Amino acid sequence: MDDIFALNRRLARSWWDMTEATFAASATIAARLPMIAAAASGFGSRRAQRETHEMVAEKIMAAAEGAQAGALQTAKATLKVMTGENDPTAMAHHMFDVADATMRPARRKACANARRLWSRSG
Question: How far is Cα 24 from Cα 108, in angstroms, rounded to an integer?
Answer without folding.
Answer: 10
